[in-house]
TrEMBL record:
It comes from Salmonella enterica. It comes from the Bacteria. This is Uncharacterized protein. InterPro entries: DUF6453.
Amino acid sequence: MPEGILIDYNDGRPAMAITAGLRAPSFCTSFAGYGTGANQFQVNTPLTSGSTVFVLPTRPVDVQEFADNQTWIVLPIYMTSVTRNGDNGVTVNGTNRGNYQRIPNWAGTVFEILPAATYNEGLLVSNSTDFTAISNQARLMTCAYVGTVTVNGSMALPVSGIPFGKWDNNNVSVGFDG
């Protein structure tokens, strides 16, 4: 039986358990626009030494159209990996099917999981062998809207931010264009 904090709104959503070993992501920065090199996007943001960094893409594919030797090319350039640049940011790397050297138009958000020793206040959940710490230095994301929506075609998001959702029709895909 896990020890920790159980949050249950009793509204049909799953309960959230904050148990030993959990760490919360801390917001670093958002990025959008054209990259800084061929199939790359340099994101400069201060990072905490020893943290684990990840990128949540909001526009992971850029479809470019251009002429090459009198042939019209439709080329998707997509994110493939993220490289940490010390404590100064990340480089988002990408590729495309034709190995064209193009400047991508991508967007996303950079987060980091802070190491355990970078704070002195916050929420601590502990037992005899492990702990969970959510630092007062972490810039956490929170949920701004929870509800059920019916989409027939398209709809605007009820609030700004990064959408998360689930749907009940296996024959339908859901997209977000930023």
